[in-house]
Design a protein that fits this description.
Layout lengths: L9 E7 L7 H11 L4 E7 L5 H11 L3 E4 L13 E2 L1 H5 L5 E5 L2 E5 L2 H11 L8 E5 L5 H10 L4 E6 L2 H14 L4 E6 L2 H7 L5 E4 L26 E4 L8 H8 L3 E3 L1 H17 L7 H29 L1
Parallel strand pairs: 1-2, 1-3, 4-6, 7-8, 7-10, 8-9, 10-11, 11-12
Antiparallel strand pairs: 3-5, 5-6
Length: 308
């Protein structure tokens, strides 16, 4: 990475606690390089409760902004001067820019997935959406899909009350939206499948290193022939649900596109830079390199623990 380290160098931070396995800085800095920006992003451990002091330091140093991981994604919201409405509604901000002393916050998880779906050529306008899971990314993704004209949203989750909360939030912004929440069972999945154009898998089921997976994927056989199945998971490249959908000839995309497009959205947010279509492969390569670095970092930490 080439950085000038002069008086014009723009300084940004990746904050959270812990950051032992963090790889976001590697990705962000590569994006800066691709855009030929004189900027650098550094890891800074900020413990829970320390955000006010950190923000004051950023203002004194003239920091351009910072990117956020746990445990600050919700705590940062009352400290911001402006927050994007969906990010406030779903209580999740992961990027903050500082302009004229004001903090402007946004969450880009939902936007990243929707941009990936659009890149895949799937028409969101009028789509009937089936969301599997009601975790942290489900609400933002659903809201961005509705913003782009999705006709209906059905959210299935093991704990129905969590899905109902998302539906309630969506109704605030889209009062005419057809939306419902139900328990995620094989029976409800099969019942919903014929009326679902877009399936977004938002659980950890099927993820590498995770014990759980879908026991019954028969609903995939009932999806319309032009349906698209998107998964927030990128490791493995093809989860069981994507493999099943692909075998049926359906359009599929994994979580890599979501992550790459989050980086594109981040660059637009912090620097007002539009990275072109050629960026996609570079972004994917950078993500894979960063993940390899994380694995090596994990091994070093494990070895250090053994030697102590």
């Amino acid at each position: 990475m080439r950085v000038k380290y002069d008086v014009d160098t723009q300084l940004l931070f990746q904050i959270g606690d812990p950051l032992d396995h963090a790889c976001a800085c590697t990705i962000h800095n590569r994006m800066y390089e691709l855009a030929n920006l004189n900027a650098v992003n550094l890891n800074v451990v900020v413990k829970k409760g320390e955000l006010p002091e950190f923000i004051q330091s950023c203002k004194q140093l003239g920091v351009k902004g910072f990117d956020i991981t746990m445990p600050h994604k919700s705590d940062i919201i009352p400290l911001c001067d402006e927050v994007e409405p969906f990010s406030r509604e779903f209580n999740c901000v992961n990027h903050v820019k500082i302009r004229d002393g004001k903090l402007i916050g946004v969450g880009l998880d939902g936007l990243g997935m929707v941009m990936a779906i659009e890149d895949a050529g799937f028409p969101i306008q009028g789509a009937r959406v089936l969301m599997l899971g009601a975790g942290a990314v489900s609400g933002p993704i659903a809201a961005e899909l509705c913003q782009r004209g999705a006709a209906s949203v059905t959210i299935l989750n093991r704990t129905v009350s969590k899905a109902e909360e998302i539906v309630h939030s969506l109704k605030k912004y889209f009062p005419n939206l057809q939306a419902k929440a139900e328990a995620m069972t094989p029976e409800t999945m099969r019942a919903c499948a014929p009326e679902s154009d877009l399936v977004v898998q938002c659980t950890s089921l099927g993820m590498s290193g995770h014990q759980g997976d879908y026991e019954d994927l028969s609903f995939v056989d009932l999806l319309p022939k032009n349906a698209c199945v998107a998964d927030v998971i990128f490791n493995p490249e093809r989860t069981s649900i994507l493999a099943k959908a692909e075998a049926r000839g359906l359009r599929v995309l994994n979580g890599m596109g979501m992550l790459v497009n989050q980086e594109k959205a981040m660059m637009k947010f912090h620097f007002d830079v539009d990275l072109g279509p050629e960026f996609a492969l570079e972004g994917e390569e950078t993500l894979l390199i960063a993940l390899a670095m994380r694995q090596l970092r994990t091994r070093r930490l494990e070895q250090k623990g053994k030697n102590q």
